Predict the structure.
Amino acid sequence: MSLDVPTELLERAEHGDVTDAEFVACVRDSLPYAWQVISGVVADLHGATADFADNVTPPPSETDRGQLLRALASDAIRGGLERHFGVKLAFQNCHRVAAFHPSAVDSDRYRAFISPRGQLLNQSPELRDC
């Protein structure tokens, strides 16, 4: 299971839409490691002059790696986080998360990060099992 959904939020979802704020709060509470990594790269992005920031530190445990994978593999979760933080997220190798300013999505740096070449260049033997 990806998220720990409070009963009252589940009941509201069964009867209609929930707000992005409610959904993002559920993600934050359910996937604390993923939230920490993503909010960290977003803070780095907003504190820098570059058009992107990334995390290259592997998760400390498989549980943490699983949280990051669940957060970024789900279109709904990734989209909710992107809307909440006002960024475009990109992902490589089970742990390398990057945040881009939306205006940078058409940039050479963004295209390089999400390209097959970028993925291949970001490989290493220690990441083969992730």
Observations:
- The chain is about 55% helix and 10% strand.
- Residues 32-46 form the longest helix (15 residues).
- The beta strands are 52-55, 88-92, 96-100.
